[in-house]
Structure prediction request, 251 residues.
Amino acid sequence: MAFRALLYRRPAEPQSIAVKFGSQIFAIRLRRHRRARRYTLRIHPSDREAILTMPPRGTLVDAKEFAQRHGAWIAARLGRLPKAAPFHPGTLLPLRGVDHKIVHRAGVRGTVWAETRDSGERILCVAGEPEHIDRRVHDFLKREARRDLAKAAQHYADLLGVKVTRISIRDQSSRWGSCTSAGSLSFSWRLILAPPYVLDYLAAHEVGHLVEMNHSTKFWRVVGKVCPQMERAKKWLDGFGNDLHRYGITD
Prediction:
């Protein structure tokens, strides 16, 4: 092990600390980062918890004091999280921005598929045992997200004359997508729950970084030129993006 790692390692350091605010007690997850210069707090929207990042030489005493000072902020931010919507029968799921009710089809062969009833109601049918519903819906949404994002990314790569080498689908909490200079793109599967023009914009955004690896004025011109709905999609994400993190989780 490198000397620097030995220097900053903390034996038996707890993974979380408790912070009390009023009558509530919150568990704060601790994360030590070698590049951190100060203590910071953020809310993980899908895990529905607060995370405190500590600098390498930070102490547990200082971390507890910092978290306690920000107890009101933690309580307010966690309290504003939208209500959880687990993948259970009856849950309304906005597949490509259109509500679909999850319906369990016990005894029917298959996995997950979408249907439209005679009444016009959109449903998402899930076959198999009840205990497999959550996993099957997650897997279905990830497959659909990969398909739509791969198609959109290739479209913009052709327009901009760049090459996409790989697409990864994850559950990123702090960003909707990312890009490396080698052409590897990563996206949140939750984009399949947004209207198609939002997913399309995020694909254009990340492919645009293969032309400009920054957020300069030139970068935004590149994206805006190939994606006319850029501003509309950005406004939708600002207003409704956080709501996407409530699906597939439980309180």
